[in-house]
């Protein structure tokens, strides 16, 4: 990383881009990512210290969120051609994933959008394709067989895995203890 300063866009810091860009290049467990997280933690600490020194910390609500975790396997999204029904395509895929037909096929679970596990909370989204494949942790889907070895990271979306977790933090100044928001 050439600079320890956050990138800025429309006057807002994009601290997370440091992690995302490097995470894809070196993987989420690389020491460079640990260093980047420590720098971000330091920046957040400076913000909180500054608010406390000015006596306004209790008057400010701070909310920080992340939208996904990162580890070595992505989610596989499949959009069948308009001439094919997703359910027919889905049946053929599951038939092809039977033991002995596809190497490591047992590590991929394929779902129709409407049958996604409810814990994922995004089956109703228009951004989700009609067929979704969820890959087990530490596996990656490839279109072609390759001998290439990759160590980079990829986004993870399955909240069954800790490595896919995202963060949600808030300061307590305007949010009462026990108050709950909607699942998102």
Shape: elongated
Say how many strands there are.
Answer: 9
Total DSSP helices: 3
Mean pLDDT across every amino acid position: 69
Structural class: alpha+beta
Radius of gyration, CA atoms, in whole angstroms: 21 Å
Itemize the secondary structure elements and their pairings.
Blueprint: E1 8-9, E2 12-13, H1 16-26, H2 31-53, E3 63-65, E4 69-71, E5 76-78, H3 86-96, E6 108-112, E7 131-135, E8 154-156, E9 168-170
Antiparallel strand pairs: 1-2, 3-9, 4-8, 5-7, 6-7
Helix pairs in contact: 1-2
Textual characterization of the structure:
With 184 residues, this protein is α+β, with helices and mostly antiparallel strands. It folds into two domains: 1-66 and 167-184, no CATH class; 70-152, Gyrase A, domain 2. 24% of the residues lie in helices and 16% in strands. The strands form four sheets. A three-stranded antiparallel β-sheet has the order 5-7-6, covered by helices on one side. Strands 1-2 form a two-stranded antiparallel ribbon. Helix 1 (16-26) runs antiparallel to helix 2. The longest helix is centred in the first third of the chain and has 23 residues, at 31-53. The two termini are 33 Å apart.
């Amino acid at each position: 990383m050439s600079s320890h300063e956050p990138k800025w866009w429309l006057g807002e810091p994009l601290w997370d881009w440091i992690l995302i860009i490097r995470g894809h290049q070196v993987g989420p467990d690389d020491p460079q990512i640990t260093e980047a997280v420590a720098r971000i933690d330091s920046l957040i600490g400076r913000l909180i210290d500054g608010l406390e020194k000015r006596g306004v910390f209790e008057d400010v609500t701070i909310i920080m969120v992340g939208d996904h975790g990162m580890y070595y396997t992505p989610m596989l999204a499949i959009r069948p051609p308009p001439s094919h029904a997703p359910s027919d395509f889905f049946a053929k895929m599951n038939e092809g994933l039977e033991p002995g037909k596809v190497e490591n096929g047992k590590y991929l679970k394929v779902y129709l959008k409407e049958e996604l596990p409810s814990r994922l909370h995004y089956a109703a989204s228009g951004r989700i394709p009609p067929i979704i494949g969820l890959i087990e942790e530490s596996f990656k889907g490839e279109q072609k067989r390759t001998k290439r070895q990759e160590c980079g990271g990829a986004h993870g979306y399955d909240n069954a895995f800790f490595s896919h977790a995202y963060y949600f933090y808030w300061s307590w100044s305007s949010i009462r203890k026990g108050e709950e928001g909607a699942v998102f």
